[in-house]
Amino acid sequence: MQKLVWVAIVAGVIFSCNNGTKGSPKESLEKFLSAMEKSNFTEAKKYATDDSQDFLTQLQNHSTGSENIYSNKTFNITGVEVNGDEAKAEVQAGTGATLTFNLKYQHGDWKVSFNMSAIMQMVTDVIKKEGVDINKDINKALDSIKINLDSLP
Any alpha helices (H) in 25-115, and if so which ranges? Predict the structure, then answer.
């Protein structure tokens, strides 16, 4: 009987420790987006990966607050897929495109990957989802430039 009580106590302690520290990717992303909406980069950094800190600092240093693209936006997290220590979250941004945010489990919590590489991946994903052929559009623009240059005296 004592062994059973001891096992129950140990299991309870382990469960409560794990439950309190890990949180969820969705919670971290909600807090990150809320901080970004308010141009609160110091708060956003708490929910960002280690490799996102410098990028957020650069945004903070160059932000006047008036050009915040996150303000007055509604973000709806439509799905989260967890795969070990990594997660992907689909976010509907207002009436615009659906963005895919990557998260990583670091330092006992879920952190949002928000650096130049992550942003470029988001843009690439949106372009693919929208069915845009970037090479075709670039070639069309280059052809237009060539035609305009050829018409110069």
Answer: 25-37, 41-46, 53-62
Q: What is the dihedral of CA 33, 37, 41, 47, to 10 degrees?
A: -10
DSSP label at 65?
S
SS3 assignment, position 133:
coil
Cα–Cα distance measured from residue 98 to residue 39, given in angstroms and rounded to the nearest whole number: 21
Position 27: which residue type? E
How far is residue 115's CA from residue 131's CA, in Å, rounded to a whole number? 25
* 9 exposure class (CB count in 10 Å sphere: 0-12, 13-18, 19+): exposed
pTM for this predicted structure: 0.69
Q: Give residue-wise pLDDT tens across range 87-132.
A: 999 998 876 788 999 999 999 999 999 999 999 998 888 888 777 7
- Residue 142 predicted with pLDDT over 50: yes
Structure tokens belonging to residue 59: 């945004």
Separation CA 109–CA 97 (nearest Å): 27
Q: How does pLDDT run across 62-97, given as a tens digit for each residue?
A: 877 656 666 666 788 999 999 999 999 999 887 678
